[in-house]
Write a structure and sequence with these properties.
With 223 residues, the chain is mainly β. The chain is built from 2 helices and 18 strands. The strands form 3 sheets. It has an 8-stranded antiparallel β-barrel with strand order 1-2-3-4-5-6-7-8. Strands 9, 10, 13, 14, 15 and 16 form a 6-stranded antiparallel beta sheet that branches. Strands 11-12-17-18 form a 4-stranded antiparallel beta sheet, with no helix packed on it. A hairpin with a 2-residue loop joins β11 and β12. The longest helix is centred in the first third of the chain and has 12 residues.
Length: 223
């Protein structure tokens, strides 16, 4: 039997071991999946940092998405409002502070490692990086601006770019970047560089209103 999934968020890390147990007549268990509202999922969103790692928690289409560094994104299964699992050996438990606001996540990894990460309060944001920008590929992101009325829309107007390539990056972290999809139209996580074909002044927009389907625009500014 071959199991194929075309989505990184399909819970295959949990499903495949269960199917193997069924095939070989081994005991298996399916956890009771809790119903957690979008409002409660949104309260868990944020960047959580431990000594050497950043963990990105996002609420997308009713699922809680976990991402660390260069590893793929994973959808977590809810066991309660504050307890989630990828499988039996990988769990995330969120803890509130004395005021009831979630500010800590305890992560149990497959190898038995346990990490405690605190919510990052530095207001990380999206930026651009690449040899088309003054920072090059090795520098820090050029931060994108936001409009308080539309906080999910990031932009730069009349910004000078050189001929070269660039990407969108979050929190100066290559573990969370957006590039050009292979259709040369849409954007995707960890995708190709955006080509900047000539030196010039550009208007750049990254629209994260629908985080499952972000939109972008890189156009020459009107003279």
């Amino acid at each position: 039997m071959i199991l194929i999934s075309n989505s990184e968020l399909s819970h295959s890390d949990f499903i495949i071991p269960q199917v193997e147990k069924i095939l070989y007549n081994k005991p298996y268990s399916i956890p009771a999946i809790a119903k957690v509202s979008t409002e409660d999922l949104n309260k868990l969103e944020g960047v959580y940092s431990s000594e050497k790692s950043n963990f990105y928690i996002k609420s997308i289409d009713g699922q809680l998405i976990f991402k660390e560094g260069s590893y793929p994104r994973n959808a977590l299964l809810p066991l309660s409002k504050t307890s989630f699992q990828l499988d039996e050996k990988f769990t995330c438990t969120f803890q509130p502070d004395q005021n009831g606001k979630i500010n800590t996540v305890i992560i149990h990894f497959w190898d038995g490692t346990v990490k405690t990460a605190k919510r990052n309060t530095d207001n990380p944001t999206w930026g651009i990086i690449g040899n088309a920008t003054p920072s090059g590929w090795d520098g820090k992101d050029i931060p994108l601006q936001t409009d308080p009325k539309n906080p999910n829309i990031y932009f730069l107007k009349n910004y000078t770019l050189k001929k070269g390539n660039m990407k969108f990056r979050f929190n100066n972290d290559w573990g969370y970047n957006l590039g050009l999809n292979n259709d040369n139209k849409s954007i995707a996580f960890d995708a190709y560089d955006f080509p900047i074909h000539e030196d010039g002044v550009y208007d750049i927009i990254l629209n994260m209103t629908n985080i499952a389907q972000p939109q972008y625009s890189i156009k020459k500014s009107n003279p």
